[in-house]
Amino acid sequence: MNAKKEQIRVLFDQLENDTENVEALQFSKNYNALELPAIISAIVDFLHPILTPYEIAVYC
C-alpha cells in the first residue's frame, strides 16, 4: 500500500512540474500582451479629439 502511495506522490510531483513549465512557457509567449495598456493608451490619446465623453470614459 505504501508503494502505491509513493507512486501516486511521484506522479503528482511530475504533473505539477509539467504544469509549472507549461505556465512559464505560456507567460513567455504572451509577454508582449503586457504592453497592451500602453498601446491602447496611445490609441486613445490619438483619437481623443474625436471621441465622445462617454467613449473616453470607457477607454480610460
Q: Which secondary structure elements does this structure contain, and how are they paired or packed?
A:
Elements: H1 2-29, H2 36-47, H3 53-59
What portion of residues is helical?
over 70%
Radius of gyration, CA atoms, in whole angstroms: 23 Å
Mean pLDDT: 76
Structural class label: mainly alpha
Hey, roughly how much beta strand do the residues contain? under 5%
Topology pattern, helix = H, strand = E: HHH
Overall number of strands: 0
- Major sheet characteristics: none
Shape verdict: rod-shaped
**N- to C-terminal distance:** 59 Å
Q: Note the total helix count.
A: 3
Describe it:
This protein has 60 residues and is an all-alpha fold. The mean pLDDT is 76. It contains three helices and no strands. The chain starts with a helix and ends with a helix. The protein is rod-shaped and about 70 Å long.
Task: Write a brief structural summary.
Helices cover 78% and strands 0% of the residues. The protein is built from 3 helices and no strands.
Key traits:
rod-shaped; mainly alpha; 3 helices; 60 residues; single chain
